[in-house]
Fold this protein.
Amino acid sequence: MKEIATLLFLLLFIAIGNSQESKIETQSVSLENLIPFIAENYNSQESATLHNITFLIQVGNTSISNDDKVILKQAFKLLSKRLTKNDSISIISYSGINGVALEKSSPKKIKSILHAINNFMPSIKEFHNDGIELAYTYANQNYNETAVNTIIMVRNPTAGSGTAINQTTAADTETAATSIAPKSKNNAVLLTAITLLPEIISIIKD
């Protein structure tokens, strides 16, 4: 068990190095701590810094619960006040549902953001097999050299993974496959390792 933990930690540090090279920061926060996280990290007085944020939200295969929607809506309302119209955010889901729920948009378009949260599954035009890899592909494609580019992984253990929903038809299989860029694989390892850290620590203690 300890050998497995050591290997995962090694993969984590390798992936961190690769994500630093691509200049895309990676942060992880639980859904229940998302509001204080935003309050602490995004101050309206720091508007001189442009932000390009991709939110990677863990969602079950039955979309988002009403309780979780309340937290997400309050968090994005706060973020909308803290960021400027020149900043940008995107929302991607992983776990049970994998897809882009909100394309790159201004945080000031709060109605569009709330609509995406309230109608999460209908907002996703194309479902993928791996939301984590999709997030880094998307972040690289929408990279802004003048902004701080960040992927924020919002963990929600209560969502459960279940069976990932993939509604890509046979005719779209090739398109879906080519939408995953090879350069995102190391970053996907990073996020996977971050997700596993609590379990790794538990293994080491045992």
